[in-house]
Amino acid sequence: MNKDQVNGTAEKVKGKVNEAIGRATGNTKQEVKGDLQQAAGQARKNLGDVMEVVKKA
User: Fold this and answer.
1) pLDDT (0 to 100) of residue 23
2) Residue-level pLDDT at 31
3) CA distances in angstroms from 43 to 28, 30, 38, 56, listed in the order given
4) CA geometry: angle 32, 20, 26, nearest 5 deg
5) DSSP string spanning 24-52?
6) CA dist 40 to 5, 10, 26, 32, Å?
7) Pfam families attached here (predicted)?
8) Contact in structure between 14 and 44 (CB atoms under 8 Å)
9) Average pLDDT of the residues in 26-42
10) pTM over 0.85
Protein backbone atom coordinates (compact mmCIF):
# COMPACT_ATOMS: atom_id res chain seq x y z
CA MET A 1 0.00 0.00 0.00
CA ASN A 2 1.48 3.33 -1.04
CA LYS A 3 1.02 6.92 0.10
CA ASP A 4 -1.53 7.76 -2.61
CA GLN A 5 -3.74 4.83 -1.65
CA VAL A 6 -3.69 5.82 2.03
CA ASN A 7 -4.27 9.52 1.38
CA GLY A 8 -7.02 8.77 -1.12
CA THR A 9 -8.85 6.57 1.35
CA ALA A 10 -8.48 9.21 4.07
CA GLU A 11 -9.89 11.88 1.75
CA LYS A 12 -12.86 9.64 0.92
CA VAL A 13 -13.60 9.19 4.63
CA LYS A 14 -13.44 12.95 5.24
CA GLY A 15 -15.78 13.43 2.31
CA LYS A 16 -18.28 10.94 3.69
CA VAL A 17 -18.23 12.73 7.04
CA ASN A 18 -18.76 16.13 5.40
CA GLU A 19 -21.57 14.74 3.26
CA ALA A 20 -23.31 13.19 6.27
CA ILE A 21 -23.00 16.37 8.33
CA GLY A 22 -24.27 18.44 5.42
CA ARG A 23 -27.22 16.14 4.91
CA ALA A 24 -28.06 16.07 8.63
CA THR A 25 -27.93 19.86 8.98
CA GLY A 26 -29.53 20.65 5.63
CA ASN A 27 -26.33 22.38 4.47
CA THR A 28 -26.25 21.64 0.74
CA LYS A 29 -22.87 23.35 0.29
CA GLN A 30 -21.19 21.04 2.81
CA GLU A 31 -22.93 18.01 1.32
CA VAL A 32 -21.59 18.88 -2.15
CA LYS A 33 -18.13 19.51 -0.67
CA GLY A 34 -18.25 16.00 0.77
CA ASP A 35 -19.21 14.54 -2.59
CA LEU A 36 -16.29 16.31 -4.25
CA GLN A 37 -13.87 15.14 -1.55
CA GLN A 38 -15.02 11.57 -2.07
CA ALA A 39 -14.47 11.82 -5.82
CA ALA A 40 -11.01 13.33 -5.36
CA GLY A 41 -10.13 10.66 -2.81
CA GLN A 42 -11.26 7.88 -5.14
CA ALA A 43 -9.20 9.33 -7.98
CA ARG A 44 -6.10 9.50 -5.79
CA LYS A 45 -6.66 5.96 -4.54
CA ASN A 46 -7.03 4.75 -8.13
CA LEU A 47 -3.74 6.44 -9.01
CA GLY A 48 -2.09 4.64 -6.11
CA ASP A 49 -3.59 1.33 -7.25
CA VAL A 50 -2.16 1.81 -10.75
CA MET A 51 1.23 2.72 -9.34
CA GLU A 52 1.26 -0.49 -7.27
CA VAL A 53 0.44 -2.60 -10.33
CA VAL A 54 3.18 -0.92 -12.35
CA LYS A 55 5.67 -1.37 -9.52
CA LYS A 56 4.90 -5.10 -9.32
CA ALA A 57 5.15 -5.61 -13.09
Assistant:
1) 97
2) 97
3) 23, 20, 9, 20
4) 70
5) HHT-HHHHHHHHHHHHHHHHHHHHHHHHH
6) 12, 11, 23, 12
7) CsbD
8) no
9) 98
10) yes
